Amino acid sequence: MLSAAILLLFLTYTTADFAGHGRAPHSESAPSYINHDESSVYDYVIVGGGVAGLVLAARLSEDPKTTVALFEAGPDPQGNADISTPFLAGALQGSQFSWNFTSTPQPTLDGAAPDLAQGHCFGGGSAINVMAYCRGASSVFDEWAEISGIEGLRWDNLVNDFRMSTHLEIPPQDPPYEFVIDKAVYDDGNVSVSQERQLVKFEPFFLESFKDDPTNPAKIVDLTSGKTGIGLQVGGPHAIESSNGTRSYALTAYGFQVAGRPNVHLNHGTWVRKINFKGKTAESVTYVKSADGSEHTVQGKEIIVSAGAINTPKLLMLSGVGPEEHLKELKIPVVQNSPEVGTNLADHHSAVVMVEVPDEIVSSVQLQTNKVLAASVQAEYQANGTGPLSTPGSSSFIAERVPDDVLEGFKKAGINVDFHLNLPKDRAHVLHQYASAPFQPDPQNLNVVSAFVALIQPEATGYMRLNSSDYRVNPLIFSNYFGSEGDMAVFTYAYKRLLSKMRSQPIKQVVLSEVYPGTNTTSDEDIKKAIDNSARSFHHPAGSVSLGKALDSSFRLKGLQGIRVIDSSAVPVLPTCHLQASVYALAEFAAKMLKSEKY
Ligand SMILES: Cc1cc2nc3c(=O)[nH]c(=O)nc-3n(C[C@H](O)[C@H](O)[C@H](O)COP(=O)(O)OP(=O)(O)OC[C@H]3O[C@@H](n4cnc5c(N)ncnc54)[C@H](O)[C@@H]3O)c2cc1C
Ligand SMILES: *[C@@H]1O[C@H](CO)[C@@H](O)[C@H](O)[C@H]1NC(C)=O
Ligand SMILES: *[C@@H]1O[C@H](CO)[C@@H](O)[C@H](O)[C@H]1NC(C)=O
Ligand SMILES: *[C@@H]1O[C@H](CO)[C@@H](O)[C@H](O)[C@H]1NC(C)=O
Ligand SMILES: *[C@@H]1O[C@H](CO)[C@@H](O)[C@H](O)[C@H]1NC(C)=O
Ligand SMILES: *[C@@H]1O[C@H](CO)[C@@H](O)[C@H](O)[C@H]1NC(C)=O
Ligand SMILES: *[C@@H]1O[C@H](CO)[C@@H](O)[C@H](O)[C@H]1NC(C)=O
Description:
binds 2-acetamido-2-deoxy-beta-D-glucopyranose, binds flavin-adenine dinucleotide, 7-stranded antiparallel beta sheet, alpha/beta, disordered N terminus, globular, oxidoreductase activity, acting on CH-OH group of donors, 7-stranded mixed beta sheet, FAD, 17 helices, FAD/NAD(P)-binding domain
């Protein structure tokens, strides 16, 4: 049994390394992982055991004659309660389960350098994310097809891959709130996508203020159905197992099912530092074991890089695939001059309004400071898998399109917003959400909710480069947040809108004080500072080894053989909401493509 004292330890966010000490509140089946055999030549060697890597390992090994070895740099998180308990998600950034990346100081943010943590364990981002499950505007996937030349990526076809990766769970008693969900876009896949049993207590206020907005009222819709990318998504859905309120992620959904298969070897604590080529053909990978620092090389007929949108281009560059000038500067022998590797790096990014709320609204701060409350929510979670701990502390979000007349106004003022005006009409520009945790410093331990608004169709993209030829050194990430005048204008409009919502009815009923930026922030100059000082990644980086640019229409790196990139790096354009659903679907799609090929 997980004791309240242990729970409190989790909640102080200080016990980063907890694996092995505590037990999850419910038992998990434990797959046994088989270590790889160094003399084999595998059909597929997969780098990275995150969302895409685990989907590929599971699907490609369905044929017992196909051999697969997967190498994950991070640990195996199974059984760790910080991972399985949805409310504790915030504690996972900066823990042993994350890559602790930051942007370089950004000129658009007056030199601020936002953090860009990524998942570092089996499950990758899906093990540490906040579990929002969304697909967004269907026109995005049609654009993927156009850019990549892969017709099958159109929404009308890709919806099959979204379906086959998920099943929908609606609580037995219809939840006590209004929501819309289209059951037809779910099937019997292993990612559990569930509606919440109950909204978190801040929710009704947040929801009402956007629903009843006089100028741009939000309609309650299903942002997973493909019908629209604009509207209010209520009560999740989240990638959470409804029956016991635990995280549903790539390890439980895909990793566990391969446990008994002799033709697939999942390795963890194995950091791939280089892909080795013979001429232009990738032949093997060299990895370092975290347990003893020893190096090993494994051969594959095909190498698939699924290390995520930051680590995939990093590994390619370390291996001699990237912009030639850059590689030469670092004295890395050039295998292929691929100027598009590391470019086109897109990310959703946001800024924060943090408010103090009454005790009835449970935040991570209150669970640290109020032991009685912490014990009671833990007892409920333990007994029934319900209550605050079974939620990510946020029930819904609103994806908005900035009205045309506002954009026309910017245009008249000489600001170029053509990109934003011309986006297909089903696309939202910005997304409002909140977390029951402090996103800005909270020295007095006030009970706070952090609302934020994110730019979800940014015009500007950034890029990444190596800082060293040493694989252990973090890369340089030029995230370029709010990097065009149009992005900045659209975002500033949206941030002011969020500020005004947080300062008026109905939200005002549950606001005891505005902790950030503070009600004295009203001038444009101060608002810009508030944006700079709270700018954050939504942790959805993508596009850094994009289809249609660095990759051809078989996910192969142009100019090379025996190597493909299948993960968020390949995503050519960001969806209009959270990214994981699209990466599951993209990997399902790619797995089918690979299985239908003879090589
Ligand atoms: C903090 C956070 C919050 C998020 N919130 C949400 C959310 O609420 N909803 C949502 O939809 N999406 C969310 N996301 C995004 C989503 O999780 C990612 O888009 C998704 O995980 C990307 O999948 P991927 O397969 O491309 O990479 P990842 O899932 O990141 O997997 C890459 C894996 O490769 C491993 N790896 C990297 N380099 C190497 C190497 N050299 N050798 C061996 N292994 C390596 C990594 O450790 C990692 O496990 C969030 C992400 C984060 C980090
Ligand atoms: C939660 O329930 C699912 C589905 O029954 C099960 O597979 C999983 O092991 C449970 N999780 C935990 C942590 O007990
Ligand atoms: C990230 O930081 C945590 C806390 O310092 C550390 O335990 C972890 O190893 C770091 N992650 C990586 C990949 O180095
Ligand atoms: C779900 O997992 C089970 C085993 O855990 C596996 O047999 C089944 O094929 C999986 N289904 C899908 C759709 O991945
Ligand atoms: C669990 O649920 C039951 C039935 O709703 C309820 O009576 C009980 O009080 C709950 N247990 C806890 C610890 O909350
Ligand atoms: C890049 O490397 C240099 C030299 O080792 C170091 O001083 C600098 O801090 C690094 N930059 C980043 C952003 O990590
Ligand atoms: C608002 O008031 C606080 C507290 O006095 C102060 O620290 C902050 O700098 C002020 N902000 C602005 C924009 O004036």
